Amino acid sequence: MSGFLDNCNVPKCDCIELGERRNLVASIVSGVMFFTGWWMVIDAAAIYPDNDQFNHAYHTPGAISTLAFFVINSVSNGQVRGESYTTGCLGQTGARVWLFVGFLLAFGSLIAASWILFGFYVVEGFQPDWPGIAVFLQNALIFFSAMVFKFGRTEDLWG
C-alpha cells in the first residue's frame, strides 16, 4: 500500500509562495489566532460575571491549552528528528516524549472544552450559550495556533 500516491501530482500554487516571509506570516497568523481565542473567553467572562451563567472553573481548559502551546513549540522539529539534539535529558527520545505530552495536553483541553460546550450549554440548556461557545472557540483557536506556529514555519525562526 505504500507509495500508491507517489505518482499523483498536486499543482503548485505560485500565488501563495511566501519564501523568506514564511516565518513572519506563520508567527503573525498564530499570534492573531491565540489572541482571538483569549479575547473571546475574556469577553464572555466580562459579559457574564455571575458563576451561575459562566462558571469560573471553565477557564481551566484554556489555561491548559496555553500551557500545551508552549510545550509543543518548545521542541524544534530538528530535535524530534534527532538532527540537532544529541545530548541532554534522554536526547531524541526525551524530545519526542515532551512533544507527545504537549499534544496530549492540547487534545485533552480541546475535548474538555467540547464537553463543557455540549454537556452543559447544549444538552442541559444553560442560558446563554455564548460562554460555552467562547470556551470551545478559545481552545480550538489556541490548538490551531500551536499547529500553525509549529508546522507553518521553517527551523530558523529568526532567519
Automatic annotation (TrEMBL):
Topology in the lipid bilayer: Multi-pass membrane protein
Alphabetical UniProt keywords: Membrane, Transmembrane, Transmembrane helix
Residues spanning the membrane: 24-46, 58-76, 97-118, 130-149
GO terms under cellular component: membrane
UniProt xrefs under InterPro entries: UPF0220
Location, primary (coarse class): membrane
Pfam family, one: UPF0220
Compartment(s) where it occurs, according to its Swiss-Prot or TrEMBL record: Membrane
Family according to the record: Belongs to the UPF0220 family.
PANTHER family tied to this protein: SMALL MEMBRANE PROTEIN-RELATED (PTHR13180)
Entry protein name: Transmembrane protein 50B
Lineage of source species: Eukaryota, Metazoa, Spiralia, Lophotrochozoa, Mollusca
